[in-house]
Amino acid sequence: MWFKNLQIYRLPANWGITLEQFEAQLAKKPFHPCASQDMESRGWLSPLGNEALVHAVGGQWLVTLGFEHRLLPSAVVKQEADERAEELAEQQGYKLGRKQMKELREQITQELLPRAFTRRRRLFAWIDPVNGWLVVDAASQSKAEDLIEQLRHSLDHFPLALLRTERSPMSAMADWLAGGEAPAGFTIDQDCELRSIAEDKAAVRYVRHPLEGDEVKGHLEAGKLPTRLALTFDDRISFVLTEKLEIKRLDFLDIVRDQLGEADKDDAEALFNAEFALMTGELSHLLPAVVDALGGEIGGEASSVSTPDPAPALATADDPPF
User: In which residue ranges is the amino acid composition biased (Low complexity) (predicted)?
Assistant: First the structure.
């Protein structure tokens, strides 16, 4: 149980909902496999595969959103529709019109859906109800919004807000690179991406390359700004910070993982609990440190979300590898 990416949100500290209330509200929308005519299904799953929809360890909560999607490529539907359209054209002596083709494709989709293969995936989120963190293990904000939207539909009251800091990550990362020094507790690693603010969007990417030389400073002086920067915190966690305040390529170093030495590797649940407790303990130190490095958190209470309004439409394409 190790998160790889962090999409970070804020809840009020000491969020006024009990574990029992939270689980009861999630139980309104459990996961069910796709029905015969469903293209997709989603709902809450037990993180451990038992009856509990919220897994709690040391006051930290873990929830899992399950997805099932039918694999029915549009090319398959189009091919079948074209073949049938040709047969119908020969029978009736003229080609099908646009409306008839649309109806034919819809009919074929309904016929093929029950026979289509399905693919399942899971999305995890960690909730710290005392300190007000909600973190989704997703590679992009658009993917995290799938889980956030489901929470909006499941909970009677959901006072969520995006994490906002006094300084933008891009501005702070530029200062760290220009000065050749990371904030207290952090070290700058050897991966970085710089992108021009001009229309050409020219970009330079460094991978396993020293970043303290004049070359990087020259790009900064030429108007390129960092969109990603690899950092290590307290010699315990390495990660990539992005201009959107995302944490990617999260890796808990050996000094952290070695603390599992006494965990029972043959007891899957005990090992899962030990990893989750260790991970959340480390992240509880990392997240405030990142916020402090970015000038502190902008004040203001999280906006209340008491009705299940649909989430805004966002792109769903995967981020390019870094």
Answer: 312-322
